[in-house]
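Minutes, project check-in

Agenda point 3 was the complex the collaborators sent over. CS summarized: two entities, 586 residues total, and the question is how they sit relative to each other. Sequences were read into the notes so everyone works from the same version.
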Amino acid sequence: MLIEILISLAKVVALLLVIILPLATLLTWAERKQSAVMQDRLGANRADILGLRVWGLFNIIADGIKAFTKEDWVPPFANRFLFNIAPFVGLFAAMVTFAVIPFGPPLTIGGRQIALQVADLNVGFLYILAFGSMGVYSVVLAGWSSNNKYAQLGAMRGISQMISYEVVLGLALVGVVLVHGSVRLPDIVAGQGGHWFGWIPKWGVFTQPLAFLLFLPAAIAETKRVPFDIPEGESEIIGYNLEYSGAKFALFLLGEFIEIVVLAALITTLFFGGWQIPWLADGGFVFGNGATVELSPLVVTVLRISGFLLKVVFFCWLQLLIRWTLPRFRFDHLLRLGWREMLPLALLNVVVTALVMLS
Amino acid sequence: MARFVHVDRQASFASSLYYPAVLTGLWITARHFFVNMGRHMLHAVGVTSGKPGSTTLQYPEVMRPLPRVLRSKHRIKVHEDGRPKCTACMLCETSCPDFCISITPMEHSGSVEEKAPAEFRIDLDRCCFCGFCVAACPKDAIYMDTQIMELSSDRRENFVLRLPDLLDPKPIPCTGPEFQGKDLSKILPHLGWRKLDHVKPARVDLSYRTERVKGLQRGNPGAHPAP
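CS then shared the predicted structure for the full assembly.
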């Protein structure tokens, strides 16, 4: 019993310290640098330690110091308790979602099988949706407790956007569940292992292409980032986090970056085979033409975990690319897109998938 | 008579799909990203002959080449022996539309010119950099070709240039091709370039400003006619 608790703790720590927090903090830097490179600029490169600049990596530290040394201001007209917990709710909802994502194949050490996943819930899927919707509370509480009309308007925009797109998000994922016949994420990942014709991997993006095309924008809308940044609208309309400053504002941003990582991991898990690498079976590479490369189980596990990480990093990159490419939707366009265009398509996807699975 | 124009902004089916246009946009930005990243990588391994990965200049280490006709901080030319070429004829002071020049003449018997400035103040807070003083000068003494335009300071006194601040030995020729893309902060000190903040704060009485403007508005010679 004790050893299992210890293993779980080790997995939580490893996940937090190896994947989520490093990626999220690096993303604050990567967002500035990537946008700069995309726009023919150099980006943040001024923060230095003893003249050492390392491509602006110290800007992460500088930003942190700046955020945490600012005054922690709570407006006198705000609801103090709700105002204080709102950023933590967002952070919590984003981080906790990661618990059910399998970041590697089951590992066998000393006869004990360890699932590389913090919590192997048999309702993993619903857990993700449940905690994904908890992100709305962060917006609601922040906007409401600020007691400021602009923050409340931003929160209202945020609620209507996030609830609308949650419907599409859930329906798009129903297709994936139908294909794999399970809501356990390890089952879904394991089900994406084989190949068609020896070269197309059975990834979710090929079994459920429409679901992927609907899931990606809906999920980006859930993270409240740029083509769908109406709740925040930092460039001019300002939103639910208007009254926040210093460390709490930084927590909102950190929560946003963690959502990016979680979303990348979700896309990887559901649509891009999770830790599956094409042609990599348990014993080594097996190519379509019959050629094989034998590998020890440990090497295979390491390859699969790094494959998962690589895919996560790629989808983080893709989200940043989308964020710095597309302009914002107008609010009525956003809701029309969600309810009148994406929702029918998602329903169609569910019906067609169900018919195909039945026949 | 107003005319109503009906504009049909209904999106076509193709554009309502979003994805083609989105992918085109992503393709463009991703291309920029990879081309620039490739160039940065080449620079990192020492290949610098290619194109730069960014179009921006790293100001203030690298400055844009300034146009040759740029009107910048003033300077007063000097003779070989170090005397200012200015003869305190007051033409620049008279022509100045901002009343920012203030010259105190003195007798100077040691040369052909019988007058010289005892004090020559230029108040950069008032100056509009019109260049009238340069055009008015009959002795070609005052110039605005120092190319110094980062005139910032946290003290008002530092904006009042006095004669020693103006007697710069030579202009800063950072317009030529030999200066393009160079690190000027390393070159400029060798050319006698000084930041304004490095000028020792002079204890200047600023009250003369208001006095002078009041005096000019009362109709002294050289003032604009009162409205």
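Noted in discussion: Chain A touches chain B at residues 34, 36-42, 213, 217, 321-322, 324-326, 337, 341 (CB under 8 Å).
Follow-up: revisit at the next meeting once the mutant set is ready.
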